[in-house]
Amino acid sequence: MLTNKRMGLALSKPVLKKFGVVLASAFLLAACSPKLDWRTVQSPQEGYSALFPGKPEKIERRLPYQSQEIPQTLEALKIEDDIYSVSAIRLRQEQASLAPNLLEQVQGNLLNRANVTLGSAVSVDALYRTANKQRAATKDYFLEFKSSGRVEQSMRVRWITRMTPDNGVWIYQISVLHTAPARVDAKTFFSEDAYSSFFDEFHPE
Questions:
Q1: What does the pLDDT read at residue 137?
Q2: What is the pTM of this model?
Q3: Helix or strand or coil: residue 22?
Q4: For residues 186 and 143, is the Cβ–Cβ distance under 8 A?
Q5: What are the backbone dihedrals phi and psi of residue 93, each rounded to the nearest 5 degrees, phi first?
Q6: Are 155 and 122 within 8 A, CB to CB?
Q7: Which of 13, 56, 75, 160 is 20 to 30 A from 84 via CA?
């Protein structure tokens, strides 16, 4: 695991905006809401397997930063009021020093919308299991976003950072976004089995 030590690197605003809209893009992935149909999705190029309640759609993009390009993928599935998604950002060995600052920016994008910080957000300690059965510590965060119009949004989100065999870095964001007319208590709502299974069965390499 990498630390969250600041590296003194700042990302450009256009790049941050692209990271910020990645979840919004998921709304465009599905026009209908299929029934729950759990299946394991293997993503070897992104170094993980995940359990989705249906077949997700996949978006691939390359995010420019200075003279570099940062690959990012998003696998997402919309079912009724929920969007299940896994985002994977790939940093090569020579880009690895960007990881702490980039992770902080990705986290801040959501935390700022919920008007919380990592320290003040509702969270629980959790464990995830890698593909080779090793267990590692992480945290799940439960966010409730400011109302915009007639709908309320809440989210359960987990961030995982992993080194690659060639000394690069993966930054994963696993999340479920819930949109409904009435606000829900995020921690209670997302503790249901249908959501917990999605997080528990995400396995990076």
A1: 97
A2: 0.82
A3: helix
A4: yes
A5: -55, -45
A6: no
A7: 13
Number of structural domains found in the chain:
1
pLDDT band per the 50, 70, 90 thresholds, residue 23: very low
Give the three-state DSSP class for 108: helix
pLDDT, tens digit (0-9, with 9 covering 90-100), for 145-197: 977 677 899 999 999 999 999 999 999 999 999 999 888 899 999 999 889 99
- Asked whether residue 2 is domain-assigned, the answer is no
Looking at residue 35, its pLDDT comes to 67
Tell whether 4 is covered by a domain: no
Q: Which DSSP string do the residues of 55-85 spell out, in sequence order?
A: PPEEEEEEEEETTEEEEEEEEEEEETTEEEE
Amino acid making up residue 127: L
Sheet arrangement for strand 135-144: 57-65, 68-79, 82-91, 169-180, 152-163, 135-144, 122-129
- Residue 67: exposed, middle, or buried by beta-carbon count in 10 A (0-12, 13-18, 19+)? exposed
pLDDT in tens, 101-112: 999 989 998 999
Residue 112 lies in a domain: yes
Q: How far apart are CA 19 and CA 13, in angstroms?
A: 10
CB distance 59 to 43 below 8 Å: no
Range of the domain at 197: 13-30+37-204
Q: Indicate the pairing of strand 169-180 with strand 135-144.
A: unpaired
88 vs 42: CA distance, rounded Å: 13
Name the DSSP letter for residue 4.
-
> In this structure, what CATH number is given to the domain that contains residue 74?
3.40.1000
